[in-house]
Amino acid sequence: MILHTINKPPSHTALSDCLAAMASDDVMLLIEDGIYCLHEVAGDHRAHVLREDLAARGLSGQLPSELKCLDYAGFVALCTQAEKVKTWA
Amino acid sequence: MQIDWSLSVSNRTLLFVQSHAPHGSLFGQEGLDAIMMGSAFARCTVLMQGDGIYQLIIDQDPTGTNTRDYSVTYSALRDYGVESVLCVQEDLTERRLSEDDLIIPVSVVNRSEVPHILATHDVILDF
Amino acid sequence: MRFAISVHGGPYTSQSSHSALNFAHALLAEGHELYRVFFYHDGVYNGSSIMAPPQDELDLYSEWRALAQEHHLDLVVCIASALRRGVIDRTEADRYDKAASNLGDVFTISGLGQLIDAALNADRLVTFRV
């Protein structure tokens, strides 16, 4: 299982590149400007968002209810659960 | 040059992913430096992903930009023991490129094979 | 678990350095080991001891310094990236006959081998890109 981080908004190719490279049991974490992909990944059970970056961008109220929201400790934990980390930027 | 992998320091495999076009930033050039270093210590694969494939276009001439043409350095990777430089067919097609436009022979894979490539290396280094 | 971090973004240009610092704090707080932080590309500017951000902004250099001293961290700036960008220690300043050096004392300047070593010897390599 691979953790994929995305730090670019949906106007960038990072999200589509990531989705094309993800296996069904991989997980994804939106960080930094990747937060703006939250609506695009809504409904994808593999998707997580970083709470601090979400709050900084004023979008906590828009978080789709099914998306899992993690703080930095959760980010670290996700790294330990995954075998490796792939960064999309 | 033959590399005796039994002498290499690590059994872990490294996947280097180059995703930036050349000249507009230094990510590709400094990424290639890391690949060269990695090849001394471990078995390495290079994936030219997305815009990264632009780094391999043949006949780059940066004399007017004063940036470095490091594409020629890719030709040396085989001597460093890097046997596999991969690119994605869809990335080529979307950029109106073919293998004939590239400075070195590459192994062309389908986009659907990328998850397997990521899964079968121990560490991924992104540039 | 043993982590390594690679930082690609320059401080105050992208969020990369802030994210890496937060991640470093979090993993240490969780009891994990931080094997090395390798600063590459513009990330090497994190090692500049003469940065002077406004008082209401995070001083990234001081933050790295404090974290390194508390946890005895190995903070490495890539020598090739650093030299071409003007981040140098006293030894390199002498070698290249430069008037000043700016690399902070908790940082070391070293080669890309340190990144490869971190990739091979840490359990997880986490890269913070631009």
From TrEMBL, chain A:
Keywords: Transferase. This is Sulfurtransferase complex subunit TusB. InterPro entries: DsrEFH-like, Sulphur_relay_TusB/DsrH. GO terms for cellular component: sulfurtransferase complex. NCBIfam families: sulf_tusB_dsrH. It comes from the Bacteria. It comes from OM182 bacterium MED-G24. One of its GO terms (biological process) is tRNA wobble position uridine thiolation. Coiled coil: none annotated. GO terms for molecular function: transferase activity.
TrEMBL record, chain B:
PANTHER family: PROTEIN TUSC. Pfam families: DsrE. The keyword Transferase applies. Transmembrane segments: none annotated. Keywords: Transferase. GO terms for molecular function: transferase activity. NCBIfam families: PRK00211.1, sulf_tusC_dsrF. This is Sulfurtransferase complex subunit TusC. It comes from the Bacteria. It comes from OM182 bacterium MED-G24. The gene is tusC. Belongs to the DsrF/TusC family. InterPro entries: DsrEFH-like, Sulphur_relay_DsrE/F-like, Sulphur_relay_TusC/DsrF.
TrEMBL record, chain C:
Belongs to the DsrE/TusD family. One of its GO terms (molecular function) is sulfur carrier activity. GO terms for cellular component: sulfurtransferase complex. InterPro entries: DsrEFH-like, Sulphur_relay_DsrE/F-like, Sulphur_relay_TusD/DsrE. This is Sulfurtransferase complex subunit TusD. Transmembrane segments: none annotated. Keywords: Cytoplasm, Transferase. Its main location: cytoplasm. It comes from OM182 bacterium MED-G24. PANTHER family: PROTEIN YCHN, SULFURTRANSFERASE TUSD. The keyword Nucleotide-binding does not apply. It is found in: Cytoplasm. The keyword DNA repair does not apply. GO terms for biological process: tRNA wobble position uridine thiolation. Pfam families: DsrE.
